[in-house]
Amino acid sequence: MTAIYKICSRAEWEAAERAGAFSGSAVDVKDGYIHFSTAEQAVETAAKHFAGAADLVLVRVEAEALGADLKWELSRGGALFPHLYAPLPVALATWVKPLPLGSDGTHVFPDLAD
C-alpha cells in the first residue's frame, strides 16, 4: 500500500468529519482537486505552502483506496504528486495527527513509516 498525506487546518478537518467528507481547502477548490503529498514530499510541502501555520493536522490515506479519482501528476521539479479529483471520505483516513510547529518554526512531523 502507498500512503499519501493531506495537510490541512484542524478546523477544515473537523468540518469534514461532521460532513463525512473533505471537499478540499480553498486552494484545492480553486485548483479543482485535493492536493496530497507522499511521505518524501510532505515536509517540503509544509515548508512551502504552510510555513508558520499553526493548528494543522496531517491526514494519512492509502492511495489505492481512492481508485480512479486519484491521479499522479507532474508538479514541483518534475515530481509526480497525488491529486484527488473527488471529495475524500473521512472514513478512508487511516490516521489523523497534529502537525505542530517546533521551536524553530518548522512543522514537527510524526513518524510517516507507520
The CATH class assignment is Alpha Beta
Q: What is the averaged pLDDT score?
A: 95
> End-to-end span in angstroms?
12 Å
Radius of gyration: 13 Å
Q: What's the number of helices? A: 3
Tell me the helix content.
10-25%
Structural overview:
There is one protein chain. The chain is an alpha+beta fold and 114 residues long. The protein has one domain: Alpha-Beta Barrel (ADP-ribosylation fold). The N and C termini lie close together (12 Å). The strands form 3 sheets. A 4-stranded antiparallel sheet has the order 4-1-5-9. A 3-stranded antiparallel sheet has the order 3-7-6. It has helices at 10-19, 26-31, 39-49, and strands at residues 3-9, 21-22, 34-35, 37-38, 56-62, 70-74, 80-84, 88-89, 93-99. It is 24% helix and 34% strand.
How is the topology of this model organized?
Layout: E1 3-9, H1 10-19, E2 21-22, H2 26-31, E3 34-35, E4 37-38, H3 39-49, E5 56-62, E6 70-74, E7 80-84, E8 88-89, E9 93-99
Antiparallel strand pairs: 1-4, 1-5, 2-8, 3-7, 5-9, 6-7
A few lines on this structure:
By secondary structure, the chain is α+β, with helices and mostly antiparallel strands.
Q: What keyword list fits this structure?
A:
114 residues, ADP-ribosylation fold, 9 strands, globular, 3 helices, alpha+beta, four-stranded antiparallel β-sheet
